[in-house]
Amino acid sequence: MLKKLMLAAATFVAAMGMAFAQVDVNKADQAALDTVKGIGPAKSKAILEERGKGEFKDWADFQKRVKGIGDKNAARLSEAGLQVNGKSLQGAPAKSADGAKVAEAKKDPAKK
Fold first, then answer.
1. Which pLDDT does position 98 carry in this prediction?
2. Strand duo 23-24 + 101-102: pairing
3. Domains of the chain, first to last
4. 6, 61, 66, 75: which has the fewest Cβ within 10 Å?
């Protein structure tokens, strides 16, 4: 019974580590890109083909070169852990350790 409990705890810790893993688009292979929520085999292949022409300079370069990556999709991918040159998309909502979204700016009281 204790062995099963320890195995379950180890599995949980490993899964949590993978859930918050950051994947750099300029360093990741296809398998790593596929782990990012919102990227499937076709999109990871397109990313790798474009990266073969040269690394992505920043998020704007990434969005310009990879078809189907607009502002909303880029924000979702960044939130899911995708990075370009080690940086998340500026302005994308960050996640706290418990997975909740962290508000980046307070609401403007004048807009009520």
1. 46
2. unpaired
3. 24-88 (1.10.150)
4. 6
H-type helices in the chain, by residue range? 2-19, 30-34, 41-51, 59-65, 71-79
48's CB contacts (< 8 A; 6+ apart) are 29, 30, 33
Tokens describing residue 15: 């899964």
Q: Between residues 21 and 99, which one has the greater pLDDT?
A: 21
Amino acid in the structure at residue 90? Q
pTM for the whole structure: 0.65
The residue type found at 101 is: K
Write the CA distances from 72 to 44, 55, 75, 87, 104, integer angstroms. Answer: 18, 22, 5, 17, 16
The string of pLDDT tens digits covering residues 41-69 is: 999 999 999 999 999 999 999 999 999 99
For the chain, the farthest-separated pair of C-alpha atoms sits apart, in whole angstroms, at 59
